[in-house]
Specification:
This protein has helices at about 40-55, 85-90, 95-115, 130-140, 170-175, 225-235, 250-260, 300-305, 310-320, 330-355, 365-375, 380-395, 405-415, 415-425, 430-445, 445-460; strands at about 5, 10-15, 25-30, 65-70, 120-125, 145, 150-155, 195-200, 215-220, 235-245, 265-275, 275-280, 290, 330, 460-465, 470-475. The chain is an alpha/beta fold. The chain has 3 domains: about 5-275, HUPs (Rossmann fold); about 275-425, no CATH class; about 430-475. The strands form 5 sheets. A 5-stranded parallel β-sheet has the order 5-4-3-10-11. Helix 4 crosses helix 7, helix 11 (about 365-375) runs antiparallel to helix 12 (about 380-395) and helix 15 runs antiparallel to helix 16. It binds one RNA strand of 75 nucleotides through helix 1, helix 5, strand 10, strand 13 and strand 14.
RNA sequence: GGCGACGUAGCCAAGUGGCUAAGGCAGCGGUCUGCAAAAUCGCUAUCACCAGUUCGAUUCUGGUCGUCGCCUCCA
């Protein structure tokens, strides 16, 4: 079966092939650690994880690199000269480096809770300043960079393919940028982006600073991804993932820097995840759907969901209800739907585990549908439909030899079905005895005693299901 | 202002130029059941609106309305 993936570069689905057989070099744009990640951010890491797991499902080894952007970026107002992380540090009266480490830890904690496979290499921008400086030197040598009194810039007119990914003409950008005040009068083109900022003028008090051939300062906003991805994965990557917002600025810049420095193709498949948008979260507020943003007042963290009693994996399940390239509307109703759906999936796994059986030929059709779905540009809604159809057919036929298939699917789904089913059915002598006692009571039609035992087991977290062929049970947590 | 995306049942959504328009959740009505739960069966969509192309459009084209995103650090 061929794996087809949508490449933003060509705006179409393409059959995937890797540079090196059996191996996929994958880079995922990681978090900026100046604040908590919200569930919208997390959605795109779930997308990258599904991509990685799908590649692994089809037999690839996937060395994956993720950056951690711990160099402060500018605040929205370019003129302010303040730095997001410094602002945060000031606000909390803590050291900027502590802040970065703290949010990095929280981020990877969230990643773990969502059962996202950790990247093979996790790299911090602040630990790769030398590589970035080397990259900028190369760009000077090849005539792409120039220095002004304030900074070093990449001259976008020296790189004709600059607009290939964004498909946004430079003229339009220039027009659009015309009314903006250009802070640096020496900048050649409005679209030129900084490779290195000097710690002078508005950045005179910038806390994070390093020596460089262009004076003390700090790296530009996009160099780290180029420098680190090429350091760990080579000059040409198979796949580069990120959020759709990167299609217009960050990724074109990465391409320009990387290809400008090496003269080689930087990335073969660019893949971008769509945003989570927030629907009405409450009845009385007239907040229409919009993207979740750190300054939007609709900031939901994974911890927010956990505090409300949701399993983090129910959020993962929710993400599968929409295709990764389509926006997903978050509402509490859809969150509840996902939680219920995930619960019944786990219940089924526990049921199948208890009853068991040989796999029957009809299972093959569902395997096929599942695999076709993930191979078709990670169509998780279809894949999930295949899972649900498998379950329904198993229940209808009362043939439960489907665990092998289910666990195999879960290598991509990452919903911990095996762990959950095993945990739910851990044998215990006391439980066995109580259940046997209850079955005896039921045989004698001693309903009062049977209900007492049911309640007693319920207090122990055991859920009972009486069936014609005996009583099934599972642990509720 | 420029560029782009989307509008499918109560909610989240997949999909297709023509067979019964996936799946989940919620709801209603049956079956099963000592109770409970689960399971199962059935029901719930003129695919935003208008026009065009076509033998035939939800799917293609144009327009209207609505929503959203990007153009600035942001998944």
């Amino acid at each position: 079966m061929s794996l087809n993936l949508y490449n933003t570069l060509t705006r179409r689905k393409e059959e995937f092939t890797s540079i090196e057989p059996g191996k996929v070099r994958m880079y995922t744009c990681g978090p900026t650690v100046y604040n908590y990640a919200h569930i919208g951010n997390l959605r795109s890491y779930i997308f990258a994880d599904v991509l990685r797991r799908t590649l692994e499902y089809f037999g690839y080894e996937v060395p994956q690199v993720m950056n951690v952007t711990d160099v402060g970026h500018l605040t929205g107002d370019v003129d302010s000269g303040e730095d997001k992380m410094e602002l945060q540090a000031e606000k909390e009266g803590r050291d900027i480096w502590d802040i970065a480490r703290y949010f990095e830890d929280v981020f990877f904690d969230d990643i773990e809770k969502l059962n996202i496979e950790p990247p093979n290499v996790r790299c911090r921008a602040t630990e790769h300043i030398d590589e970035m400086i080397e990259l900028v030197k190369k760009l000077f040598a090849r005539g792409h960079a120039y220095e002004t009194a304030q900074a070093v810039y990449f001259d976008v007119t020296t790189f004709p393919k600059y607009t290939e990914l964004s498909r946004q003409s430079l003229e339009d950008k220039m027009t659009a940028a015309r009314d903006e005040v250009q802070e640096d009068p020496e900048k050649r083109n409005p679209a030129d982006f900084a490779l290195w900022f000097k710690a002078i003028g508005r950045f005179e008090h910038h806390i994070m600073r390093w020596e460089s051939p262009w004076g003390v300062g700090f790296p530009g906003w996009h160099v780290e991804c180029s420098a680190m991805s090429m350091k760990y994965l080579g000059e040409t990557l198979d796949i580069h993932t990120g959020g759709e917002d990167h299609v217009w600025v960050h990724h074109p810049n990465e391409i320009a820097q990387s290809e400008g420095a090496t003269g080689k193709k930087f990335v073969r498949y660019w893949m971008h995840g769509a945003f989570l948008v927030v629907g009405k979260l409450s009845v009385d507020e007239d907040d229409e759907e919009r993207r979740m943003g750190k300054s939007e007042g609709n900031f939901l963290r994974l911890q927010t969901l956990i505090d409300k009693g949701y399993d983090p994996l129910a959020y993962r399940y929710l993400c599968f209800s929409a295709h990764y390239r389509a926006k997903l509307k978050f509402t509490w109703e859809s969150m509840d739907a996902a939680a219920s759906g995930y619960e019944s999936l786990k219940d089924f796994a526990a049921r199948a585990k208890q009853i068991g059986g040989e796999e029957q030929p009809w299972v093959a059709e569902h395997r096929k549908k599942f695999e076709e779905a993930i191979a078709d540009d990670l169509n998780m809604p279809q894949a999930l439909a295949a899972v649900n159809e498998l379950i329904r057919e198993a229940d209808r036929r009362k043939e439960y030899g489907v665990l092998e298939a289910l666990y195999k699917f879960d290598e991509v789904l990452g919903l911990n079905l095996r762990e959950s089913a095993e945990k739910a059915t851990i044998a215990d002598a006391e439980i066995d005895n109580l259940i046997k006692e209850r079955e005896n009571a039921r045989a004698e039609k001693n309903w009062q005693r049977a209900d007492e035992l049911r309640n007693q087991l319920a207090e122990m977290g055991i859920v009972l299901e009486d069936t014609p062929s005996g009583t099934l049970w599972r642990r509720s947590n």
